[in-house]
Amino acid sequence: MKAARFYEVVKPLKIEDVEVPKIGPKEGLVKVRACGLCHTDLHFLEGVLKPGKTPIILGHEVAGEVVDLGEEVRGLQRGDRVIIYLYFTCGGCYYCQTGRESLCTNLSGHLGFTVDGGYAEYVKAPARNLFKIPNGLSFDESAVLVDAVATPFHAVKGVAQVRLGETVVVYGAGGLGIYAVQIEAKRGESHRHRHS
Question: Which of 10, 12, 41, 43 is in Cβ range 3.0-4.6 Å of 49 for a Cys bridge?
Answer without folding.
Answer: 43
